[in-house]
Protein backbone atom coordinates (compact mmCIF):
# COMPACT_ATOMS: atom_id res chain seq x y z
CA UNK A 1 0.00 0.00 0.00
CA UNK A 2 2.92 2.39 0.44
CA UNK A 3 3.39 2.61 -3.35
CA UNK A 4 -0.09 3.97 -4.09
CA UNK A 5 0.34 7.45 -2.63
CA UNK A 6 3.71 7.77 -4.39
CA UNK A 7 2.11 6.88 -7.72
CA UNK A 8 -0.67 9.39 -7.12
CA UNK A 9 1.79 12.12 -6.15
CA UNK A 10 3.97 11.39 -9.18
CA UNK A 11 0.94 11.41 -11.44
CA UNK A 12 -0.26 14.75 -10.06
CA UNK A 13 3.22 16.22 -10.23
CA UNK A 14 3.65 15.12 -13.85
CA UNK A 15 0.22 16.52 -14.72
CA UNK A 16 1.01 19.82 -13.00
CA UNK A 17 4.36 20.16 -14.74
CA UNK A 18 2.74 19.38 -18.10
CA UNK A 19 0.01 21.95 -17.46
CA UNK A 20 2.59 24.58 -16.49
CA UNK A 21 4.53 23.92 -19.69
CA UNK A 22 1.35 24.20 -21.75
CA UNK A 23 0.51 27.47 -19.97
CA UNK A 24 3.94 28.83 -20.83
CA UNK A 25 3.67 27.96 -24.54
CA UNK A 26 2.27 31.30 -25.74
CA UNK A 27 5.09 33.09 -23.96
CA UNK A 28 7.68 30.85 -25.58
CA UNK A 29 6.19 31.52 -29.03
CA UNK A 30 5.64 35.21 -28.33
CA UNK A 31 9.20 35.71 -27.12
CA UNK A 32 10.34 35.30 -30.72
CA UNK A 33 8.62 38.62 -31.45
CA UNK A 34 9.93 41.35 -29.18
CA UNK A 35 9.70 45.14 -29.18
CA UNK A 36 11.95 46.71 -31.77
CA UNK A 37 12.69 50.19 -33.13
CA UNK A 38 9.21 50.29 -34.72
CA UNK A 39 7.54 49.75 -31.34
CA UNK A 40 9.75 52.23 -29.50
CA UNK A 41 8.91 54.93 -32.09
CA UNK A 42 5.14 54.53 -31.60
CA UNK A 43 3.08 56.99 -29.62
CA UNK A 44 1.79 55.17 -26.55
CA UNK A 45 -0.64 55.80 -23.74
CA UNK A 46 0.72 57.55 -20.68
CA UNK A 47 -0.50 54.47 -18.79
CA UNK A 48 1.94 52.18 -20.61
CA UNK A 49 4.03 50.46 -17.93
CA UNK A 50 7.82 50.29 -18.11
CA UNK A 51 9.06 47.50 -20.37
CA UNK A 52 10.27 45.32 -17.47
CA UNK A 53 6.67 44.95 -16.21
CA UNK A 54 5.52 42.91 -19.21
CA UNK A 55 7.72 39.81 -18.79
CA UNK A 56 7.07 39.76 -15.05
CA UNK A 57 3.31 40.07 -15.49
CA UNK A 58 3.12 37.58 -18.35
CA UNK A 59 5.28 34.96 -16.65
CA UNK A 60 3.06 35.14 -13.58
CA UNK A 61 -0.06 34.91 -15.74
CA UNK A 62 1.26 31.99 -17.79
CA UNK A 63 1.97 30.08 -14.58
CA UNK A 64 -1.55 30.83 -13.33
CA UNK A 65 -2.96 29.66 -16.66
CA UNK A 66 -1.08 26.38 -16.21
CA UNK A 67 -2.33 25.93 -12.65
CA UNK A 68 -5.85 26.72 -13.85
CA UNK A 69 -5.58 23.98 -16.47
CA UNK A 70 -4.35 21.56 -13.80
CA UNK A 71 -7.20 22.46 -11.41
CA UNK A 72 -9.66 21.98 -14.25
CA UNK A 73 -8.25 18.61 -15.33
CA UNK A 74 -8.23 17.09 -11.87
CA UNK A 75 -11.83 18.17 -11.28
CA UNK A 76 -13.40 17.78 -14.73
CA UNK A 77 -15.83 15.05 -15.52
CA UNK A 78 -15.79 13.22 -18.83
CA UNK A 79 -17.41 16.08 -20.79
CA UNK A 80 -14.53 18.53 -20.86
CA UNK A 81 -13.86 18.79 -24.60
CA UNK A 82 -15.55 22.21 -25.16
CA UNK A 83 -13.57 23.73 -22.30
CA UNK A 84 -10.28 22.29 -23.58
CA UNK A 85 -11.02 23.46 -27.13
CA UNK A 86 -11.69 26.98 -25.85
CA UNK A 87 -8.52 26.79 -23.74
CA UNK A 88 -6.51 25.84 -26.83
CA UNK A 89 -8.09 28.66 -28.84
CA UNK A 90 -7.09 31.26 -26.26
CA UNK A 91 -3.52 29.90 -26.21
CA UNK A 92 -3.27 30.26 -30.00
CA UNK A 93 -4.78 33.76 -29.94
CA UNK A 94 -2.38 34.75 -27.17
CA UNK A 95 0.65 33.64 -29.18
CA UNK A 96 -0.74 35.18 -32.38
CA UNK A 97 -0.98 38.62 -30.81
CA UNK A 98 2.80 38.94 -30.41
CA UNK A 99 3.33 37.82 -33.99
CA UNK A 100 0.73 40.28 -35.32
CA UNK A 101 1.80 43.24 -33.21
CA UNK A 102 5.58 42.91 -32.89
CA UNK A 103 6.33 40.57 -35.79
CA UNK A 104 4.05 42.03 -38.47
CA UNK A 105 3.73 45.58 -37.07
CA UNK A 106 -0.05 45.36 -37.43
CA UNK A 107 -1.69 46.96 -34.37
CA UNK A 108 -5.11 46.89 -36.09
CA UNK A 109 -5.01 43.14 -36.71
CA UNK A 110 -3.54 42.64 -33.25
CA UNK A 111 -6.53 44.55 -31.87
CA UNK A 112 -8.94 42.15 -33.56
CA UNK A 113 -6.91 39.26 -32.16
CA UNK A 114 -6.87 40.62 -28.62
CA UNK A 115 -10.64 41.18 -28.61
CA UNK A 116 -11.11 37.55 -29.68
CA UNK A 117 -8.55 36.57 -27.04
CA UNK A 118 -10.51 38.41 -24.35
CA UNK A 119 -13.72 36.64 -25.39
CA UNK A 120 -12.01 33.24 -25.42
CA UNK A 121 -10.47 33.82 -21.98
CA UNK A 122 -13.88 34.79 -20.58
CA UNK A 123 -15.45 31.69 -22.11
CA UNK A 124 -12.63 29.48 -20.82
CA UNK A 125 -13.01 30.93 -17.32
CA UNK A 126 -16.74 30.16 -17.33
CA UNK A 127 -16.24 26.64 -18.69
CA UNK A 128 -13.34 25.88 -16.35
CA UNK A 129 -15.28 27.39 -13.43
CA UNK A 130 -18.06 24.85 -13.92
CA UNK A 131 -15.63 22.04 -13.08
CA UNK A 132 -13.50 23.91 -10.55
CA UNK A 133 -14.13 27.31 -9.02
CA UNK A 134 -10.38 27.68 -8.53
CA UNK A 135 -9.71 26.97 -12.22
CA UNK A 136 -12.12 29.73 -13.23
CA UNK A 137 -10.90 32.25 -10.66
CA UNK A 138 -7.25 31.72 -11.65
CA UNK A 139 -8.09 33.09 -15.10
CA UNK A 140 -9.53 36.36 -13.77
CA UNK A 141 -6.15 38.15 -13.45
CA UNK A 142 -5.37 37.04 -17.01
CA UNK A 143 -8.67 38.49 -18.20
CA UNK A 144 -7.99 41.74 -16.33
CA UNK A 145 -4.47 42.05 -17.75
CA UNK A 146 -5.73 41.38 -21.27
CA UNK A 147 -8.38 44.06 -20.67
CA UNK A 148 -5.59 46.51 -19.87
CA UNK A 149 -3.52 45.25 -22.81
CA UNK A 150 -6.54 45.82 -25.06
CA UNK A 151 -6.70 49.43 -23.89
CA UNK A 152 -2.97 49.81 -24.65
CA UNK A 153 -3.45 48.24 -28.09
CA UNK A 154 -6.38 50.58 -28.84
CA UNK A 155 -4.33 53.59 -27.72
CA UNK A 156 -1.45 52.65 -30.03
CA UNK A 157 -3.75 51.89 -32.94
CA UNK A 158 -5.62 55.19 -32.53
CA UNK A 159 -2.52 57.34 -32.06
CA UNK A 160 -0.50 55.87 -34.89
Q: Keyphrases for this structure?
A:
single chain; 160 residues; mainly alpha; 81% helix; elongated
Task: Describe what you observe in this structure.
The protein is an all-alpha fold and 160 residues long. It contains 7 helices and no strands. The chain is elongated, with a radius of gyration of 17 Å.
Secondary structure blueprint with pairings:
Elements: H1 3-30, H2 37-41, H3 53-75, H4 81-103, H5 107-131, H6 133-137, H7 140-159
Helix pairs in contact: 1-3, 1-4, 4-5, 5-7
How is this structure best summarized?
This protein has 160 residues and is mostly helical.
Order of H and E elements: HHHHHHH
Radius of gyration: 17 Å
Number of strands: 0
| Secondary structure tally, helices | 7
Name the poorly predicted regions: none
Q: What percentage of the residues does DSSP assign to strands (E)?
A: under 5%
Coarse morphology:
elongated
Give average pLDDT, whole number: 95
Biggest sheet details: none
Structural class: mainly alpha
Distance N terminus to C terminus? 66 Å
Helicity range: over 70%
Amino acid sequence: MTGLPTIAVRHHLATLVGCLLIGLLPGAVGSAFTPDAWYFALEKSSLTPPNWVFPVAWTSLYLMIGVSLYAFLINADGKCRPALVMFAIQLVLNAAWSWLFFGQHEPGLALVDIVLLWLSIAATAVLFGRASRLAGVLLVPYLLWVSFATYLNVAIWAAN
